[in-house]
């Protein structure tokens, strides 16, 4: 792929290794493993490589409880990885570290975070609420899932945002529901960094 970005001619190639044996419940994966490792070298006026690593594992040690973990890394590396002519990578924080929502952590407080690299870890215990009282039909016809979680993210900022918080952590509990194929999640979250304390968080997205 050849791009003309900000008047710079850049060439880009992609390679990825993808694996998926996950078994899905009505609202999220409950067993198996998924991963994606990808590299995208960029060459031309600027030289750098974008690296993605995303590993997810699901266990069910005691039915109907699932333990889910995700470790994800995304960033640019190489000679021109931090070049000021490149747009920074922008993350919607609420999708990777719950509880920070639309508060953000930088001066603009827009709910996004500009970073050149990130490393994120998520852990969950998830269970069908109906399955706590009925082992014959864990979801009992109701696609509602309870969860307890912990999230942590480490972000490498561009020079102009070095004063912003670079580590975000949270823990909490909540429920997730599948409504006609759309996944809604409502959580009570305790934040440890930036805007500290308890808050409610609402997300509309499939879970990892």
Structural write-up:
With 208 residues, this protein is mainly β. It has one domain (2-204): Porin. Helix content is 0%, strand content 60%. It contains no helices and 14 strands. The protein has strands at residues 2-5, 8-12, 15-20, 23-24, 29-44, 48-62, 65-77, 89-92, 112-115, 117-128, 144-156, 167-179, 182-191, 197-204. Strands 1, 2, 3, 4, 5, 6, 7, 10, 11, 12, 13 and 14 form a twelve-stranded antiparallel β-sheet that branches. A hairpin with a 4-residue loop joins strand 4 (23-24) and strand 5. The protein is globular and about 60 Å long. The two termini are 29 Å apart. Mean pLDDT is 82; it is low at 103-110.
Give descriptors for this structure.
single chain, 208 residues, mainly beta, Porin, two-stranded antiparallel ribbon
Layout: helices, strands, pairs:
Layout: E1 2-5, E2 8-12, E3 15-20, E4 23-24, E5 29-44, E6 48-62, E7 65-77, E8 89-92, E9 112-115, E10 117-128, E11 144-156, E12 167-179, E13 182-191, E14 197-204
Antiparallel strand pairs: 1-2, 2-5, 3-5, 4-5, 5-6, 6-7, 7-10, 8-9, 10-11, 11-12, 12-13, 13-14
Query: In terms of structural class, how would the helical and strand content be classed?
Result: mainly beta
CATH class call: Mainly Beta
**What's the total count of β strands?**
14
Radius of gyration, in angstroms, nearest whole number: 19 Å
Question: What is the string of SSEs from the N terminus onward?
Answer: EEEEEEEEEEEEEE
Give a short account of the largest sheet.
12 strands, antiparallel
Our count of helices gives 0
């Amino acid at each position: 792929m050849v791009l003309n970005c900000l008047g710079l001619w850049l060439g880009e190639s992609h390679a990825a290794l993808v694996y998926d044996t996950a078994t899905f419940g009505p609202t999220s994966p409950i067993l198996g493993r998924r991963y994606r490792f990808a590299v995208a070298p960029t060459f031309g006026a600027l030289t750098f490589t974008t690296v993605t690593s995303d590993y997810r594992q699901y266990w069910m040690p005691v039915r109907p409880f699932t333990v889910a973990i995700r470790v994800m890394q995304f960033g640019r590396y190489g000679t021109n990885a931090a070049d000021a002519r490149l747009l920074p990578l922008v993350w919607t924080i609420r999708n990777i570290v719950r509880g920070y929502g639309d508060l953000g952590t930088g001066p603009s407080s827009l709910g996004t975070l500009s970073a050149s690299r990130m490393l994120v870890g998520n852990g969950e215990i998830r269970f069908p609420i109906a399955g706590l009282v009925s082992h014959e039909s864990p979801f009992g016809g109701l696609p509602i899932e309870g969860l307890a979680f912990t999230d942590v993210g480490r972000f490498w900022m561009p020079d102009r945002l070095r004063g912003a918080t670079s580590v975000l952590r949270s823990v909490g509990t909540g429920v997730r529901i599948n409504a006609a194929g759309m996944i809604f999640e409502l959580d009570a979250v305790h934040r440890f960094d930036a805007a500290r304390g308890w808050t409610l968080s609402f997300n509309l997205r499939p879970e990892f």
